[in-house]
Design goal:
five-stranded antiparallel β-sheet; alpha/beta; FAD/NAD(P)-binding domain; Polyamine Oxidase, Chain A, domain 2; about 425 residues; globular; 3 domains
């Protein structure tokens, strides 16, 4: 008896599940309500000054430790050139801060990089090395969860090293301010990146839009292996859908569960991500594809020209909650330009700008926040999504891991049910 599976949602979690099934010879049917795959990491189209532009709905940073995502990208034929890989390097746009992991065997590369970091007092650099060594002794685990701010305070890491290194890393990884973020989840991210193998901490910056990076090649892979993917196809009743399949994986955002499985919908608070695109003259480029800013609204600025060939286009990213949420999008673009102009002389005025607000980009990754498992109380219905990974921040890696995990649970349940029916006495 062949396994029949439906997947609701063609984001990174849903397509990870679909690709995993397809690679193992199980044709699946994927339903996606939107016109494009990718979920909260997808390509969008905007019009400005009579021209259409394709943009990402957010700017994502990948880490070398994202092993499951990279494995699936390779399996659907995405070339390594789709990502720009550089050793971990964090620079401020004004040149006041520079940290770079060196090419020594781990953990020496990281520790040497910390000791040589520019813009941080020497005593704080030594303290950062001691901090990492202390975390390694404990296996990057805590007896009880606290906020990242409390963890940094306990280890005397709240000075410039906290402001320029640890807090930006926290917001980038968890999309939650340090005074609210889970230290346990933050340490899991540090364990797998900064304290992992030499390439685990590498920065990998997308050189394709987020739909092309994995979801669209994944759709082609699934269709080649006998599966179906239906875009612009909204599922309104999961239980009705289940009648035609052995299992259904619901891979949508947690806030969307209220319409599909209201008894399972968790009550989360959410954190936003705002991305402001500023198109300058083609001559404009950054000294490095990703630069940090501090003291204002913008946390990171990306050179889309260096990454995707969109010359003169800069993408400013503001992660997590803050004062920017009370500003209109046009004013936010103006504020982003002002902060860039202060740090990067000679920009000129932008030719056009557009801000994109993902107001529920991720759940708030706070201490003790409950994460559901893939299994549900409804027979044959399973969950996938970045919010279901209890150990990892809500990232693209967490999303694809959850999709693969849901596949394994479906297979285990299917095998157990089949074994039970085969051993049951005939009546």
């Amino acid at each position: 008896m062949a396994l029949r599976v439906a997947i609701v949602g063609a984001g990174y979690a849903g397509m990870a599940a679909a690709v995993t099934f397809a690679a193992e010879g199980v044709p699946v049917t994927v339903f996606e309500s939107g016109p494009l795959p990718g979920g909260r990491a997808r390509r969008i189209r905007i019009s400005s000054h009579g021209q259409d532009h394709e943009l990402d709905n957010g700017q994502h940073i990948l880490a070398g430790a994202y092993s499951e995502l990279f494995r699936l990208m390779r399996s659907v034929g995405v070339a390594s050139e789709a990502l720009l890989r550089v050793p971990l390097e964090l620079r401020s746009a004004d040149g006041a801060f520079h940290f770079r992991s060196l090419w020594f065997p781990p953990p020496l590369g990281l520790l040497a990089g910390l000791l040589l970091a520019k813009g941080i007092p020497f005593s704080e650099r030594v303290g950062a090395v001691r901090f990492m060594r202390s975390l390694k002794k404990t296996g990057f685990r805590l007896a009880g969860d606290v906020t990242v701010a409390q963890l940094l305070e306990e280890h005397r890491q709240r000075g410039r090293v906290g402001k320029l290194l640890w807090e930006p890393l926290c917001v980038s990884a968890l999309n939650t301010p340090a005074d609210q973020a889970s230290a346990s989840v933050f340490l899991a991210a540090l364990r797998d990146t900064l304290a992992g193998e030499r390439e685990a901490s590498d920065l990998l910056l997308p050189r394709r839009d987020l739909s092309q990076l994995f979801p669209e090649p994944a759709i082609e892979f699934v269709r080649r292996h006998g599966g179906e993917v239906w875009l612009r196809s909204t599922v309104s009743d999961v239980h009705e859908l289940k009648q035609g399949f052995d299992a259904v994986i619901v891979a949508v955002g947690p806030h969307q569960l209220k319409a599909l499985l209201p008894d399972l919908a968790p009550e989360y608070s959410y954190q936003p991500i705002y991305t402001c695109y500023l198109q300058y003259e083609e001559r404009v480029r950054l000294a490095f594809p990703m630069l940090g800013l501090s003291g204002g609204l913008v946390q990171w600025v990306f050179d889309r020209g260096a990454l995707l060939g969109e010359r003169g286009r800069l993408a400013c990213v503001i992660s997590a909650q803050g004062a920017h949420q009370d500003i209109g999008l046009d004013e936010l673009c103006a504020r982003c330009h002002a902060e860039l102009a202060q740090a990067i002389p000679g920009l000129g005025e932008p030719l056009w700008s557009r801000a994109i607000a993902e107001k529920r980009a991720t759940i708030a990754c706070t201490p003790g926040v409950a994460r559901p498992s893939a299994d549900t109380t409804h027979p044959g219905i399973f969950l996938a999504g970045d919010y279901t990974d209890s150990d990892y921040p809500p990232t693209l890696e967490a999303a694809v891991r959850s999709g693969v995990r849901a596949v394994r649970r479906v297979q285990e349940r299917f095998r157990a049910t089949r074994a039970s029916s085969e051993t049951s006495p005939a009546r």
